[in-house]
Model the fold of this input.
Amino acid sequence: MPAQVERTVITRLKGGLGNQLFQYAAGHALAERTGSTLLVDTSYLEHRPANMDWTPRDLALDVFNAPLMLACEAQVKEARRSLDDRLARWTARLSLGIGKWNVLMEQGDDDLARFKALNAPAYLEGYWQDERYFLNVADQLRGHLFQPREPVEGRNAEVLGKIGAQVSASLHVRLGDYRTNERSAAWHGVVDPAKQREWALELVEKYGVEHFFVFCDEPELVAAHLALPHPHTVVAHNVGTAAHWDIYLMKHCHHHIIANSSFSWWGAWLNPSPNKVVIAPARWFNGAERSASLALPPTWTVR
Done:
């Protein structure tokens, strides 16, 4: 096997910005541990079948400092061919350790142990929504890699100044396809706004929060939906490819109320303060068995 293949990790990207950050973080952690080069597979993002029932997404990571090198079509085909071969061998109850690529598909409770034992060359297929996959590179992610490449300016600089001038908290309301897409609504669902108001009151009374900065993918609906009785600012100007600036602003707030969303998960996690309070919903999936606590750091508060 060529040396360049032996020292390669490919992570498959799918979903929106928050999900892509998880997939990159896990890939980078594995690449660092194995002394490998990280490549990203964008084939799922580019696949737009006529009957697709999920929200189409584009590559969203090119706004950060993190190096972004694309896996070529031949590399992806080779790795995924190995994936198909491994599934066939598993069905036949033969060894999974044969093949050029070490392919890891996210499946269940033993994923973390299998990830920690994985060697390069490796191909990652999953969401990896747990900080334990990338704690070994946490300082890199927070300190440089997941920082915007462009300087903060304009309205974002103004909001950043207001965030730092008072005891602030971010509050994320996830609507969008959680509200309008049948598949997303059935799987996730929207967090009860009454609960988010209760959590806001808790931050005011216990931690002295003076002002909330509200982030929402449908800002024109959030005032009526949330009906927040505390001083707050709805941040509505970072749309489309500027959405990463909302994560940047979230991370600079003192405390956080997140939705059942990987987007605000990152806004809270990237805040390096040991004194931050993060309140998250206990139900991450609507009607599902899986608990949100599997993806939430142990210092966060689950309600």
The two ends are 50 Å apart (CA to CA). Residues 91-98, 183-187, 288-293 have pLDDT under 50 and may be disordered.
